[in-house]
Design brief:
single chain, mainly alpha, 2 domains, 3 helices
Length: about 80
């Protein structure tokens, strides 16, 4: 794809995204406050606290393993 065509594609993509976002706001069936409330309730169902805790534990374990490998490589 030539540079000019890719620029027009990106313009169209951006414009389409803006139009979609505007249409979503205008046609939304609930107010913003009610939508946020509904989202909070749905997110609580997913038990994100447990998921985040497991992610942090896995990240820390990976970081420790990376430090161990780095020390071994220094020797």
């Amino acid at each position: 794809m030539s540079e000019g065509k890719s620029f027009h594609f990106l313009e169209g993509l951006l414009l389409g995204g803006l139009i979609g976002a505007a249409a979503g706001v205008v046609l939304a069936p609930l107010t913003g406050e009610k939508t946020r409330e509904m989202l909070k309730d749905k997110l609580k169902e997913f038990e994100l606290d447990d998921l985040i805790e497991r992610f942090v534990e896995a990240f820390e374990a990976g970081q420790q393993e990376a430090d161990k490998v780095a020390k071994e490589m220094e020797e």
